Amino acid sequence: MDAPTAPFPLPRAGGALADAFLLRPERLYLDCAAHAPRLRAVQAAAGIELERESRQPWTQDWNALIALIERVRASAARWFDGDADGVALVPSVAYALSIAAANVPLHAGDAVLVLAGQFPSNLLPWQQRCVDVGAHVRVVADPQGDWTPAVLDALHGHADVRGLALPQAYWRDGRLLDLDRIADAAHARGAWLVLDLSQSLGALPADLARWRPLFAASAGYKWLLGADGLAWLWAAPDGRDCGRSIEHGWFNRGARDDWRFPIDRPADFLAGARRFDGSGLIDRIRLAKAEAAFAQLAAWEPRALLSHLELRTAALREALQAHEVPIGIAEPAAPHLLGLRPGAAWDACVRALDAAGIDITARHGVLRIAPHLHVDVEAMRHVANVLARALR
Ligand SMILES: Cc1ncc(COP(=O)(O)O)c(C=O)c1O
Q1: Which residue from 197, 198, 224, 228 has its CB within 8 A of the most atoms of ligand 1, so it is best to mutate?
Q2: What's the whole-number mean pLDDT along residues 266-274?
């Protein structure tokens, strides 16, 4: 089979795309939805910081640290409509969405709409806020197909829905939600929207101007290819200007040059979404990793990157069809993330993939296949061959 071509060329610094990553040659890693493969650039940036930290822990240039934080914030903002002032650096999505849950309007009797089986970091904060105010979580039952009409039905069918806390791509199997339609319907109803973009940002762009969420969050170590322990929260203007942080420290409340803080009241928050920055940002290794990852993503150019990821999932799809493998695909599928449903052939498929050295997440009846650029289309066809053989 000829190698398919993507509509947008990927700029390369010479060498194969896989050379950009640190890989285990004996395994085929297809689990970016769990954790991105490590970029060499990220490893190198971390190494430089680790070396400095180990040899010279006393070199703490405060101004250089703040400059690094602001550079990383500006790079992250590229994925949030270029709005650096709206971006906060936080340790996790659970932290980000706990801030969101603490700040959205919600009253006794209101409901927050979530998907069945939604990732716990986008469920637990809502459950707790609901307990606090006497509201409740309303769950959209899994339609076993397109989530969007099911979400719209739930929104239209229940007058108590005050807000929706949703992903763009469903973490278990990559089913894509049509956030254009959902956002329009939510805003028409006066309901707010909070988004967990962890399974899309870095692969798919976010259209914040169109969706108008109050908050949007993403993990940093999946499709954004960055650091563990550094996630992202974008806050709409209202939230960033007067929202309440869940943590109060010298990172989000202005440290004066002389390090004296007023006693009669807390020092003012820093400007914009910086009020939500989590503490621990003194860890420059995480920051350096994120900076290197954003630089690599920018060099690949988001549109080109997405078209090349789509080439990989399309190659798998086409090869499965060509083999007439009786495996369902979760639809509507994201261009970067496929959920295969082998049904009764589950055990055979899981065993065959593992024996062939192919790393995926196999859970909830779904084989979740999440390649990045380190994998070529031939490797994706190989996955289809393995599955076809397992089912013969
Ligand atoms: C949809 C989704 N949201 C969030 C996360 C990570 O959440 P946290 O940073 O709270 O661990 C994951 C990780 O698998 C995820 O799949």
Answers
A1: 198
A2: 94
